[in-house]
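In response to reviewer comment 3 from the previous cycle, which asked for concrete evidence that the modeling workflow produces usable outputs, we include below a single protein chain processed end to end. The sequence was submitted unchanged, and the resulting structure tokens are shown without manual editing.
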Amino acid sequence: MKLSSVDRTITVESATVDLGEILPEYVRKNVLQVAGKYFGRLNAGTVYFKKEGITYYCTVNMQMGALRMMSGEAKNKDIYAAFNSALNKVAKQLRRAKRALRDNKAERTDKDVVLREGLRPSRRAEDEAGALSI
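The workflow returned the following structure tokens.
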């Protein structure tokens, strides 16, 4: 799922960290993989890195289709681990949103009635039980 127009919507930025060439490529590849796994339509994605002391902070924002913006933040001493942790948080939100949309179906009331009737003893069984006790 490599689209050139999609790469332009994934922004990888940092004010305090030199990202090089490999990290932005790695970020774009993984964001596209998560987007393709859950909804397949990425409107916009932003990944921001910052460093305070020896700790890297990563913020991942993804907008999928008509859903609200999903965000995940993480910190770690390794910049790749910080990114993976933040992306996993966003993936969890997307997974839950997809499950909520998929499970948002009307409940069958006729099925519930049949199940409840199966749990109650029938009148015939009650009559037979009464006849045995006499």
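The beta strands are 10-14, 42-52, 55-64, 70-76. We consider this sufficient to address the reviewer's concern, and the full set will be provided in the supplementary archive.
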